[in-house]
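dude i think i finally got it to work??
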Amino acid sequence: MLRSWSFVCAAVVLAASLPKLAVASPVEGRTVEVSQATNLREADQDDPPVGLFDELNVTPEQKQEIQEIRDQHRVTLEQRQQQLQQVQQELNQLIASEAPKEQIRQKHEQLLQMTQDMRELNFDVMMQLRDILTPEQRARFAEIMQNRRITPARNPE
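look at this
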Protein backbone atom coordinates (compact mmCIF):
# COMPACT_ATOMS: atom_id res chain seq x y z
CA MET A 1 0.00 0.00 0.00
CA LEU A 2 2.86 2.39 0.78
CA ARG A 3 4.32 1.84 -2.69
CA SER A 4 1.05 2.79 -4.38
CA TRP A 5 0.85 5.85 -2.13
CA SER A 6 4.37 6.80 -3.22
CA PHE A 7 3.26 6.59 -6.85
CA VAL A 8 0.28 8.84 -6.16
CA CYS A 9 2.53 11.31 -4.34
CA ALA A 10 4.89 11.23 -7.29
CA ALA A 11 2.03 12.05 -9.62
CA VAL A 12 1.13 15.00 -7.46
CA VAL A 13 4.77 16.06 -7.62
CA LEU A 14 4.51 16.18 -11.35
CA ALA A 15 1.38 18.29 -11.03
CA ALA A 16 2.95 20.56 -8.44
CA SER A 17 6.17 21.26 -10.23
CA LEU A 18 6.64 24.81 -9.01
CA PRO A 19 5.68 25.41 -5.36
CA LYS A 20 5.97 22.95 -2.52
CA LEU A 21 2.85 20.92 -1.92
CA ALA A 22 2.23 19.02 1.28
CA VAL A 23 0.20 15.86 1.05
CA ALA A 24 -1.04 13.56 3.73
CA SER A 25 1.01 10.51 4.42
CA PRO A 26 -1.02 7.40 5.22
CA VAL A 27 1.31 6.74 8.14
CA GLU A 28 0.40 8.46 11.41
CA GLY A 29 -1.04 11.55 9.72
CA ARG A 30 2.41 12.91 8.85
CA THR A 31 2.88 15.17 5.86
CA VAL A 32 5.45 15.09 3.13
CA GLU A 33 6.50 18.05 1.05
CA VAL A 34 6.58 16.25 -2.21
CA SER A 35 8.59 18.82 -4.11
CA GLN A 36 11.40 18.43 -1.59
CA ALA A 37 11.02 14.67 -1.35
CA THR A 38 11.66 14.28 -5.05
CA ASN A 39 14.25 17.04 -5.45
CA LEU A 40 12.12 18.59 -8.17
CA ARG A 41 12.68 22.27 -8.84
CA GLU A 42 11.97 24.79 -11.49
CA ALA A 43 15.15 25.73 -13.30
CA ASP A 44 16.62 29.15 -12.67
CA GLN A 45 16.92 31.30 -15.76
CA ASP A 46 20.72 31.01 -15.71
CA ASP A 47 20.80 27.27 -14.98
CA PRO A 48 20.09 24.50 -17.44
CA PRO A 49 16.69 22.92 -16.74
CA VAL A 50 16.73 19.90 -14.43
CA GLY A 51 14.14 17.68 -12.85
CA LEU A 52 11.40 15.32 -13.70
CA PHE A 53 10.18 17.29 -16.70
CA ASP A 54 13.56 16.93 -18.34
CA GLU A 55 13.83 13.25 -17.50
CA LEU A 56 10.47 12.69 -19.15
CA ASN A 57 11.14 15.01 -22.11
CA VAL A 58 7.90 16.86 -21.42
CA THR A 59 6.88 19.23 -24.21
CA PRO A 60 5.97 22.88 -23.55
CA GLU A 61 2.35 21.99 -24.30
CA GLN A 62 2.45 19.18 -21.72
CA LYS A 63 4.05 21.53 -19.18
CA GLN A 64 1.20 23.97 -19.73
CA GLU A 65 -1.42 21.26 -19.24
CA ILE A 66 0.33 20.02 -16.09
CA GLN A 67 0.47 23.58 -14.77
CA GLU A 68 -3.27 23.96 -15.38
CA ILE A 69 -4.00 20.75 -13.45
CA ARG A 70 -1.75 21.90 -10.62
CA ASP A 71 -3.49 25.26 -10.47
CA GLN A 72 -6.88 23.60 -10.57
CA HIS A 73 -6.18 21.38 -7.53
CA ARG A 74 -3.63 23.33 -5.50
CA VAL A 75 -6.03 25.26 -3.28
CA THR A 76 -8.21 22.23 -2.60
CA LEU A 77 -5.21 20.07 -1.70
CA GLU A 78 -3.79 22.74 0.59
CA GLN A 79 -7.14 23.24 2.34
CA ARG A 80 -7.68 19.52 2.83
CA GLN A 81 -4.15 19.14 4.15
CA GLN A 82 -4.73 21.87 6.72
CA GLN A 83 -8.01 20.25 7.76
CA LEU A 84 -6.29 16.89 8.04
CA GLN A 85 -3.57 18.34 10.25
CA GLN A 86 -6.19 20.00 12.45
CA VAL A 87 -8.13 16.77 12.92
CA GLN A 88 -4.87 14.92 13.68
CA GLN A 89 -4.07 17.49 16.37
CA GLU A 90 -7.57 17.16 17.80
CA LEU A 91 -7.19 13.39 17.91
CA ASN A 92 -3.84 13.69 19.67
CA GLN A 93 -5.39 16.02 22.23
CA LEU A 94 -8.31 13.66 22.82
CA ILE A 95 -5.95 10.72 23.31
CA ALA A 96 -3.98 12.69 25.88
CA SER A 97 -7.14 13.82 27.68
CA GLU A 98 -9.78 12.04 29.72
CA ALA A 99 -12.11 11.96 26.71
CA PRO A 100 -14.42 8.96 26.36
CA LYS A 101 -13.20 6.17 24.08
CA GLU A 102 -16.17 6.64 21.78
CA GLN A 103 -15.28 10.29 21.17
CA ILE A 104 -11.69 9.27 20.36
CA ARG A 105 -12.92 6.56 17.99
CA GLN A 106 -15.19 9.05 16.20
CA LYS A 107 -12.31 11.46 15.71
CA HIS A 108 -10.14 8.60 14.43
CA GLU A 109 -12.86 7.61 11.95
CA GLN A 110 -13.05 11.23 10.80
CA LEU A 111 -9.28 11.23 10.25
CA LEU A 112 -9.43 7.96 8.30
CA GLN A 113 -12.21 9.30 6.08
CA MET A 114 -10.35 12.53 5.41
CA THR A 115 -7.19 10.58 4.56
CA GLN A 116 -9.17 8.42 2.14
CA ASP A 117 -10.68 11.53 0.54
CA MET A 118 -7.18 12.97 0.08
CA ARG A 119 -6.01 9.73 -1.53
CA GLU A 120 -8.94 9.80 -3.93
CA LEU A 121 -8.23 13.40 -4.92
CA ASN A 122 -4.54 12.57 -5.46
CA PHE A 123 -5.58 9.58 -7.56
CA ASP A 124 -7.86 11.78 -9.68
CA VAL A 125 -4.96 14.17 -10.26
CA MET A 126 -2.72 11.26 -11.21
CA MET A 127 -5.28 10.04 -13.74
CA GLN A 128 -5.46 13.50 -15.30
CA LEU A 129 -1.68 13.59 -15.54
CA ARG A 130 -1.61 10.12 -17.03
CA ASP A 131 -3.77 11.37 -19.90
CA ILE A 132 -1.19 14.06 -20.69
CA LEU A 133 1.85 11.76 -20.81
CA THR A 134 2.69 9.56 -23.75
CA PRO A 135 3.01 5.80 -23.20
CA GLU A 136 6.81 6.18 -23.34
CA GLN A 137 6.73 8.96 -20.74
CA ARG A 138 4.48 6.88 -18.48
CA ALA A 139 6.91 3.97 -18.69
CA ARG A 140 9.87 6.26 -17.95
CA PHE A 141 7.96 7.88 -15.07
CA ALA A 142 7.24 4.46 -13.54
CA GLU A 143 10.92 3.54 -13.92
CA ILE A 144 12.07 6.77 -12.25
CA MET A 145 9.67 6.27 -9.35
CA GLN A 146 10.78 2.66 -8.92
CA ASN A 147 14.43 3.75 -8.81
CA ARG A 148 13.64 6.43 -6.25
CA ARG A 149 11.90 3.88 -4.04
CA ILE A 150 14.86 1.50 -4.24
CA THR A 151 17.61 4.10 -3.81
CA PRO A 152 17.61 5.54 -0.28
CA ALA A 153 17.65 9.30 -0.07
CA ARG A 154 21.06 10.78 0.49
CA ASN A 155 21.53 12.81 3.63
CA PRO A 156 23.89 15.73 3.05
CA GLU A 157 26.36 16.06 5.87
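The mean pLDDT is 74.
im so relieved honestly
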